[in-house]
């Protein structure tokens, strides 16, 4: 079938998009969601289980705390509170953690460790997917069931100060709010003062039930200068003082009202050693979670190493604490220490409510839920719970009741842990089959595209797509049969839900036909190419294209570098490979030049050998390209017909010296940042230059480099481009001076600027 190259490209793009979409659908698994009710209708809470005698406790238990304050410090890492920094800079918090009436945990955030998905996880208890990162900056209102919505429905009055992401997520929920934009990362004072300035007034008033504070300053300091910056200590002390203020105010209020309040100190995510976040390293994932309330018992324990829990556990705990139904999509389990002080009947009631909610979610998302161990444990616990209630209502001896109660509680806790785990695993599961189908489609189209490039670039801009003949070939039908059989096998045996299996048979069949047809087309195109290649290699007129060492170095180096990026640690330390490759390339270049210079021009001037072997009709285009290469890459000079022998004396020496100059420059460049990402906090030449004490040196260097760029490039330019370039370079310097990295000659070095802004 003859096709214009435009039509062909359009078809390719359409199929590519389909393939990529299918792949992404498998890569971003559908989050675990409850389907029972789309609107937040009040559903009656699960009644207390009972065998025989009926329980009369069918309503939701009353709230445990009268007021709840959530103090969220953005990018608060667990060691900022529980480590040596916490002891040094947060004395009051450390006192509360060690000796006060509090429960501390290390809450593990699930990646992506970015603010908006973390707020959602804290308030809904569900696990958002990676797709939420894309929506991070423009977050729409949260429609999913969550603690804030429930609290509003229950008539709680909520006040919020801090990161305006909350206001976007919950636009109509707060009776009073003041959002702060997180856009100006270099500001770490105003963002927090804007929150704190309301505190005195609000804490005196008694007309609210929930107060949420989101402090951004710590995160901004992390982004500017990393977690080992001295600014971190100041910020932590500031936060400690604020916590003390809130806690004392809550305590004095409790003395009047005689009902306990709850203060929650938490972080949304941590920060890495470079001060960024988003990935899944330990430093980014672990955040402190401290529940402080006079309702808790004071007990000294192994506090320096708190228990690890999931960040999603907070939603269920808050819901129970406020006397609200647990958000329906929550995968978290109640933090048991927070209800430990309550009577056994209440404890069991809370655990039961949580287990019912989790098992319901499991039933709706896992087809084979009855086989799940968590579900069996839950059914068992529910039965025991019923027995316990019967004994309780019959008023049995307290010892029997106590023993059975302990047993039921343990059973419930086991069930909650298992249920929560299997639900979280559900989210982390990739849909491998859909991903595979998508990948195969994309790769087939890419291969076809690559094979057709020479034909498509020819003067006719038309190409023969071998599609019709293969469709009637045996291979096509064979492929189609094999794929259909595979589809049936995979879809009938898969336990978890698969998107591609969920498609109608007609659609799936269409995709199979497409894949088989594409494969046949690729095979026939390959066969055609090999046939013509053989023909050409028999032709003695075809120039002998041997690869030089330089070509091999560049090709192997590029491939090796690409492969090394597959290892996650090399993405952070990628520059090490890069330094090695640049040095190797320089030495290879040096070798090439010296051989040409001393041994004479023994090799023939060759054409650029970038795989043009088979395609004679594209020769003009390729020749153009090889000329372009010579201009762009100085090392090609040695290969062009004017070889080193014809160069004049000083030019020859320059050519010979240049690799060494480049090598020296590389060494200098390397010492600018030899500590890489992992040890970024260690001193470096780069740090020395960017520190505010050495601004003058940096300014001189920057100016010199810009002048050198101009001097080297201007020779080939017309007058207009010269002026434009000069203005552009001047603009670069002015921009850097304006943001405070370098100085203008007439400007005096002002030492009072404490902010260090990293140069890019
Ligand atoms: Zn954050
Ligand atoms: Zn941040």
Automatic annotation (TrEMBL):
<comment type="pathway">
    <text>Glycolipid biosynthesis; glycosylphosphatidylinositol-anchor biosynthesis.</text>
</comment>
<dbReference type="GO" id="GO:0005789">
    <property type="term" value="C:endoplasmic reticulum membrane"/>
</dbReference>
<keyword id="KW-0256">Endoplasmic reticulum</keyword>
<dbReference type="GO" id="GO:0006506">
    <property type="term" value="P:GPI anchor biosynthetic process"/>
</dbReference>
<feature type="transmembrane region" description="Helical">
    <location>
        <begin position="432"/>
        <end position="453"/>
    </location>
</feature>
<feature type="transmembrane region" description="Helical">
    <location>
        <begin position="696"/>
        <end position="713"/>
    </location>
</feature>
<keyword id="KW-0337">GPI-anchor biosynthesis</keyword>
<dbReference type="InterPro" id="IPR002591">
    <property type="entry name" value="Phosphodiest/P_Trfase"/>
</dbReference>
<dbReference type="InterPro" id="IPR037674">
    <property type="entry name" value="PIG-G_N"/>
</dbReference>
<feature type="transmembrane region" description="Helical">
    <location>
        <begin position="7"/>
        <end position="28"/>
    </location>
</feature>
<dbReference type="GO" id="GO:0051267">
    <property type="term" value="F:CP2 mannose-ethanolamine phosphotransferase activity"/>
</dbReference>
<keyword id="KW-0808">Transferase</keyword>
<protein>
    <submittedName>
        <fullName>GPI ethanolamine phosphate transferase 2 isoform X6</fullName>
    </submittedName>
</protein>
<feature type="transmembrane region" description="Helical">
    <location>
        <begin position="465"/>
        <end position="490"/>
    </location>
</feature>
<keyword id="KW-0472">Membrane</keyword>
<feature type="transmembrane region" description="Helical">
    <location>
        <begin position="502"/>
        <end position="531"/>
    </location>
</feature>
<comment type="similarity">
    <text>Belongs to the PIGG/PIGN/PIGO family. PIGG subfamily.</text>
</comment>
<keyword id="KW-0812">Transmembrane</keyword>
<dbReference type="InterPro" id="IPR039527">
    <property type="entry name" value="PIGG/GPI7"/>
</dbReference>
<keyword id="KW-1133">Transmembrane helix</keyword>
<dbReference type="InterPro" id="IPR017850">
    <property type="entry name" value="Alkaline_phosphatase_core_sf"/>
</dbReference>
<dbReference type="Pfam" id="PF01663">
    <property type="entry name" value="Phosphodiest"/>
</dbReference>
<feature type="region of interest" description="Disordered">
    <location>
        <begin position="35"/>
        <end position="58"/>
    </location>
</feature>
<feature type="transmembrane region" description="Helical">
    <location>
        <begin position="725"/>
        <end position="746"/>
    </location>
</feature>
